[in-house]
Model the fold of this input.
Amino acid sequence: MLTRRRAAALLAAPLAIPGLSRAQAFPQDRPIRAVVNFPPGGTVDTVTRLIAPALSERLGRQVVVENRGGASGLVGAEAVVRSAPDGHTLLFALSTHTVNPHMVPRMPFDTLADFAPVGFVGGAPVLMAAHPSSPFRTLADVIAAGRVGEGPHYGTIGNGSTGHLMMAQLQTLTGARFTHVPFRGGGPAVQAALGGQVPLVITSTVAVGPQVQAGNLRGIALSGAERSPAHPTVPTVAEQGFPGFSADSWVGVFAPARTPDSAIARLNAELGAALADPGIRQRLTEMGMTPRAMAPAEFGRFVESEYNRWGAVVRAHSITAD
Done:
């Protein structure tokens, strides 16, 4: 017969199994996936690859960047939703994350309920740029062309992108027409403009800015409230006849819902430390992005406000995912 002491020891034994507490800790002894829901070369891809090495060093685990583009970011986002909520799979998302649910009739997930906000990375205006051979030098030139026929074609990262929403608002304000050409990401859109497939491209300064700085594309207008330090000679939309106009793109980090608060807190702390690194801050600023750390709760409120803001614009302009 078991003595009471022996029985108590057996009941307590599972708590003492070597490695059990380590399995519940974060991070575990395996890599962390940073899922980018757009192809290589765009805003979120560039920013994620800049930050990933710093996160790897601080977390003591390799942070592996994985591009899962498609459907304006839905493919990669769904892959994260379906992953284990243990902090080892993260979504580095663009601002389209809060626009898609207003355009897609049958979303594969709930944007607000199925993700845990980890932290904000930074915001950047979108930059309208033209091929040097095009006749467009100012926003007035683009608007004038938009009053003739179907108007100029412009490329963006897809339906509901900040560039697309910006042009939809300009159509309403001016009565001009513009023809939207959606691409799978900022990289492909910029390449199309360089190759002359579209006369205009409108995407984040992170994606298109280097080509403007190199003189391969001509900067026409910035969507931000102020000029970008990275592009001081490019005027804003507001400066060119539309006071108060402002629309920024942004990058943020999410985990699957039900990820432990302790893992979220650790990830947020290390993300904030990475953003505080002088080298990373300088590089982001050179790209035209303003880095800004947010606590998870603050970032969650920001995401909800963006969700409501852009939902109103999508409905007002009847923008769909098709």
User: Anything to note?
Assistant: The first strand starts at residue 32 and ends at 36. The CA atoms of residues 38 and 69 lie 4 Å apart.
